[in-house]
Protein 1
Amino acid sequence: MNIRVGQGFDVHRFSDDPGRRLVLGGVLFEGEPGLEGHSDADAIAHAVTDALLGAAGLGDIGQLFPDTDPALAGADSLRLLEEAVRQVHEAGWRTGNVDCTVVLEAPKLAPRKAEIQRVLSEVVGAPVTVKGKRAERLGAIGRREGIACFAVAILFAVPDPSEPLGSDHP
Ligand code: MG
């Protein structure tokens, strides 16, 4: 089989620490409460990373980047995603596209959506699309206790992984 699909999910609760910054899809939301986590708690970047790793059969983000690793405290999750993409490529896979659904009540994603898609697409090397969805006041996300993200990724095998990136995109 030369096409594989992967799914990713992540959730982070909002932090009580006023020093935490909100980063979603590599984009900083100035003045918004941050999420709790060992890294920068970028739930979108984490879900995308897991979707890609899952599709390639390379495990998950927790295996690759343990949250017990002091070197990863406050880590920029885009750099973690970058490393996952590198490993996926090394294993002989290229990304077709990634699609994400972010579940949140606030802040509004729409004004920053294009920017998030641009940043993630650049790191992944393929189109990444993002949709914002409210939880309609249901459950923890609906009570604005956190933000969740679902992602799916499709990969295709390349005959020669040493080929330059981009040359074989469909
Ligand atoms: Mg996470």
Protein 2
Amino acid sequence: MKVTVAGAGFVGLVASACLAELGHQVTCIDIQKEKINMLQCGRSPIYEPGLEELLEKNLCNKQLHFTTSPHQAYSGADIIFIAVGTPENHDGSADLKYIHVVSHTIAHYIEQDVIVCTKSTVPVGTNELIQQIIESRKPPNLQVEVVANPEFLRKGSAIHDFFHGDRIVIGTNHSEAAAFMEQFYLPLKIPIMKTDIRSAEMIKYAANAFLATKISFINEMANICKNVGACIEEVAYGIGQDKRIVHHFLKAGIGYGGSCFPKDTKALIQLSGDFKQRYELLEAVINVNNRQQSLPVLKAKEIIGSLQGKKIALLGLAFKADTDDIRESAAITIIKELLEAGAVVTAYDPIAIPNARRIIGNAIEYTEEIRQALLNADLALIATDWDQIKHLPLEVYLTHMKEPIVIDGRNCYPLQEIRQYPIIYRSIGRPDLPNTNDTFE
Ligand code: UGA
């Protein structure tokens, strides 16, 4: 089938590469010429494990093409996926300018009947708007059906998620379009849910709001655990055995970040407000998350007092491991707070440094060597659970730092391991170490 994907961002590129891998003839279009030039040479503009290999392979076997030409992209397409960005407006609502532009362009360039499938996260009612825009501008003899098809890909495991997702949601009020999409996705052998267009749009926001709520719930619980001397990991495991709760997404830490949860929770509050309804639970979820991101610096001040002139090693810049995305990363909040407090920061990250530098500039030092960041540091602060950090031999904190003080915002190390070293260790929702009973040789 001839498939066109509009937008060469994270969602568009993963969809393009994976649909080509499934055997479709895929054309991915973007308005950014530099990005398309790079992709035509098989280089991915974003870091996503396995993506570049899949792009290269399908470019070589000519299943995949990149273009900036709308005629080339849309004229012969059987199905068009919209995967353009929906950034945040000042008031938290979703900015639909790219959706408008792409809808107009599709209407102008299509030359045959086509299904238009929206993968971008869009507020309820947007797919009907896309249908109206295309309907009013397309050649009158052509039939176009717009289908809401939200994606549930996670950064860092998107290729796996595409082929092994929990469900595919197809939202349309048109039975033939629903049947077409069902056939299209059949080879993936993923359970397919067909629903109306507005429910499909809502499923995406509801899923992200629920997952964000789970994280703020467990973080709130972690803070109580710490106060009463319980361990959040035991508690999360214990409640997760209940099938109504499940253990996934109950990892306490310094809060969620990224381009999705922060944006989508705010957009849902805004959407709710449009109907004069306050979404109080979600407001609390966001407040808890903001507070959680500020915990590490508070803990640092508790241990060493003033941070003025202190050398801090910040381990991890990405909002989570296996991505170079630093949008809404807890690390960025932490850096701002550390700089305000007069600290001297050296940040370690294996791949997110170029993106962080664009936001933070030269106000801090950067290194791709953990040991370099830790050298002579007064305190280390872990913001991302990179494997490189999790597998660092704990002796390194003793041999490299001025004082072995570690604030672990991602609970990277088992307490029984830390206990074997004279490291002053604070984590999230777990007892402080060393405690009064610990002695070291
Ligand atoms: C999230 C959803 O998980 C995807 O299903 C969805 O498709 C995507 O948003 C989107 O809307 O496009 P993503 O933002 O890539 O995916 O990353 P997650 O793995 O969900 O992690 C989000 C944040 O929550 C990270 O900062 C992570 O460190 C944090 N987190 C996650 C926790 O603090 N605890 C957990 O138990 C899980």
Protein 3
Amino acid sequence: MQLGVCYYPEHWPRERWETDARMMAETGLSRVRIGEFAWSRIEPEPGQFNWQWLDDAVEVLHAAGLGIIMGTPTATPPKWLCDSMPDMVALDRHGRPRGFGSRRHYCFSHAGYREQSARITRAMAERYGAHPGVVSWQTDNEYGCHDTVQSFSTSARDAFRVWLERRYGQIEALNRAWGNVFWSMEYRNFAEVELPNLTVTEANPAHWLAFRRFSSDQVVSFNKAQVAILREHSPGRDITHNAMGFYTGYDHHDLAADLDVLGWDSYPLGFLEQFRFSASDKLEYARQGHPDIAAFHHDLYRGCARDKRWSVLEQQPGPVNWARHNPAPLLGMVGLWTLEAAAHGAEMVSYFRWRQAPFAQEQMHAGLLRPDGAPAPALAEAKDAASKLETLGPIGETCRDVALIFAYDAEWMTQIQPQGEGLSALWALFDFYRALRRLGVNVDIVPPTADLSDYAMVVVPCLPIVPTALAKALEQFQGQIVIGPRTGSRDADFCMPDNLAPGSLSPLLNLTVTRSESLAPGLEHAGDGWAIARWLDHVEGDAEPELTAVDGTVACWRNGKARYLASWPQGALLDEVITRACGDAGIATTPLPEGLRIRRTGNYLFAFNYSAGEIALPDAIEGEVMIGSRTMLPASVTVFVR
Ligand code: GAL
């Protein structure tokens, strides 16, 4: 695995660049990502390019032996460009334009902006595509960051109509598929269809789902256009893009199909603060990040990536600037996060950023260097990680235990129709992941189309639309299967299947969901140390009740190799179900102490101490210690030879 860093030469005096490049190489970094926000410096006036500074930067970095990841600068269209076509900006859900003065203000559907994106991409690719220092390209930056995938502009509306006509052919087909007879929502032609925002009460969920699919497709086609240009002018270079944490605004399986390497941006402390973690987790892991945050995304994006090639394009090196609270990581965490990415199969970890900027929006965001150019604490950690990675060499293939199946439209559907507060397919996925990892199990997160044959167990946490091929694959699958609630509960257009949920999985599970209810906090059915909470499916059929609450309500049904969890996957009930399923699947489990996580690969077993205290490794974890020790200090890594 390579180490790299995100660098903005345009932020620093020319005289400093050689020093920076030398220090990067001395730290053990071999990759440097540049250029992704530099449009106003590359093309200060329409059509007038100033390449000199970027040519220089490329030479300096290349001369220091660094491989350059060049970004296309389309996340930050300059002022003159926005002024030349003011309708290129996106409109938010309330119809308000997204103003100039930060980034990501463009609308993916604006034809003029698409031309500009192609023009600047081509100019850069022609200039640097054959340069020996340029090893890879990053398209744009974090599609969707700051909630920017959906735009409610007239460009988006017009493109949506074309997209709908292509999908449905006839307006009658759309009316039928969406159930538009309800509330007199029928259209006479595609030109009558509006965007689903600004309706009085909720729009038809089918309308929203179509708009989510359309918006995702717009991102994918925007990206595809850049990829085609880069492939033409820069053959042999990898093309990548940086995805985000807990973000589902577009279909990453679709986007990754056009990339060589899928990247993602790892900010474990910011994500802990911003997302759904309990107040006690937020305190306990404030300086480490929850032990499943980074690993979850490593495993998710490896599953999205073509040929499983993925990397961390931005790694948090210290306090960030954008969460509610921004603590510094415990000393050791930057190194731990780096080795953890290696353990999950990353090709690269690139720190964001080289030097903290004393100006503009991110002045409170740490880098490997302080604003004055002196080393910040993470620099030594990066150097140490580089030497450990060299000691380790290749980590070997990942070991496959459990596959979790996830599709982006599942999360769109639970967002569109949660039915109970906070019920989300993404978080059901995360909760299964966390529960499995606490048992020391290796988990892959894969799309519904994945080959399942190597796994001992498959879990489908929440998948309203079950593709026919997946239903077939599960029928043939030899291992254990766990199906979560709402799976198979809708067709491709958000209507219930004729045979009710679980639709095409009825033969596998031998049951029919006749009624579903969501449960407010405290409205629970207590079982033996667990409870049915948040959601309950009432079921008919010949499946066997496996876990029954004291009042007789069934939490989990079983039909041979397959289980159906009729309650929301959470707490002790979830632990009980997966412990049973792992046992039946013959998967060895090791309940891990709080804060400890492990990962097995062909050559090594990695242990990560995410807690703020020492951990003595359980006896079940064995092997010759290569790095670290059996008594693990806080924020430390121990590696065993297998
Ligand atoms: C990412 C983004 C970077 C930088 C970073 C700060 O979302 O790609 O450009 O803003 O966050 O943490």
Protein 4
Amino acid sequence: MKQSMTLIPTLREIPSDAEIKSHQLLLRAGYIRQNASGIYSYMPLAKKVLQKVEAIVREEMDRAGAVELLMPALTPAELWQESKRWYSYGPELMRMKDRHDRDFVIGPTHEEVITSLVRDEVKSYKRLPLALYQIQTKFRDEQRPRFGLLRGREFIMKDAYSFHANHESLDEIYTKIFDAYSNVFRRCGLDFRAVIADSGAMGGKDTHEFMVLSDVGEDTIAYSDTSSFAANIEMAPVVVEYEKSNEQEFALEKVKTEGQKTIDEVSTYLNVEPSKCIKSLLFKVDESFVLVLVRGDHEVNDIKVKNLFDATVVELATPEETREIMNCSVGSLGPIQIAENIQVIADHAVKMIVNGVCGANEEDYHYIGVNPDRDFSINPQYADLRFIQVGDPSPDGEGTIVFARGIEVGHVFKLGTRYSEAMNAMFLDENGRNQPMIMGSYGIGVSRTMAAVVEQFNDENGIVWPVDLAPYKVHVIPVNNKNDSQRSLAENIYDQLQNNGIDVLFDDRAERPGVKFADSDLIGIPVRITVGKRAEEGIVELKVRSNGETLEVNTENLIETIRSFIVK
Ligand code: 9G3
């Protein structure tokens, strides 16, 4: 491809509204242009990279036994009313009316559509399992689109759905697609972790997110420094074995703690370690109030509280609710002598506290000499209720926990019958009984993956594409366009490369050399061939973008030298 023929609008300056590297570089190197907030055009170079990512995704999904189809972006509201999601989603769900005033959803994901398709066509266990996927543009009206392609309102997703007669079959396909995802992200050169994730609103069990480690990631991952254990911070179980100190138990005593509210204030004022303080927080769990206790140096994990009660809504009680229910402010809450109807749950660590401190449920008073079991009872139970912390032992028993931020590029779910029951997607099992199909759903953010690669592969001069994803493999640059020998040799090399099936970009612009080289570094093509002064001698310069390695090459063996850099 000749640069005078294509459109690569590079920018010198960093666009002010681009906060992260990938957003800045994709704009500056002419890969994307914004049409509206969270809505982008993929310029020619980005389109080529997307094709490479999609080709890898297709190869791996086909190998896993899934079959590609393509569903409509416009989907009748009736399907979403059947699944009830028409009523549960808010402004993020893009809706429209057609010319006959009929309601439509502009698809953010396609569980409803695929389930309606399969229910109409599949009736017997003999036709299962079935795994179908598509690569399609999705629409989600994000409140705050940001970070370029990482959180857009229109983006490209590979979404797959599988249908099964039993859970063993789902487990089998889930594992195959899980492995396919690992292959995809490895082939994209990404440093990723498969993370145990909360099933969240999808209502399934067993779900994993594929997270690319990156400081700009929106999620926090807890992972082991030596094993493959990794979990979303909300889901990471805590497996610490706490010891109870054998110090003499003191008597319970109420003390005045004028104006001391937070754990830090109280522990400093009473000269007691935070780990001997009991942090009591009143939560509203669905319609009831629950007092949650954790050790003073830990944090309550509200997702674990939600999962313990299998609740829909869990949130901190407001200060007004707290005062109304507990007759004191948040800073004086404690588990001793509280109303019978308030449930009290506590993290396992609380059980081991000896002669601790807790609020007295009286303004500006705390108890000291607090000994759980003697001074208060836990009902219904002790549980794992705290957030995992850096330094905790890894739940798989290997290594210690470290934190990282991650960009979610993939997500796989065991959905169960959430959609097949709601939409009556039934099949006759081998005993002739009508059963709801068991489903899985699997997504890869294709455009987000491209941006994640740029986040991970760049340097001070621009993008540094992994060879398999680069829009072109070789960038041929004649230094001086007016010099016939340079130009003709460059043209000749360009033709040779094309005849050898090597994707090549040719900079035939009448620009100063400095501009050409700066643009070449920005665009990030793996191998650059500079045709300069030594063209007459048949010598050109080859530069490797990833490590700056530069060598003089005789045009005789240019092709095999280039191949050595672009073929694994
Ligand atoms: C919506 C809107 C936004 C959404 C969803 C529905 C996320 C929604 C979760 C999924 C689950 C899987 C198939 C591919 C893999 C992920 N945001 N999710 O369901 F209506 Cl507005 O999309 N879907």
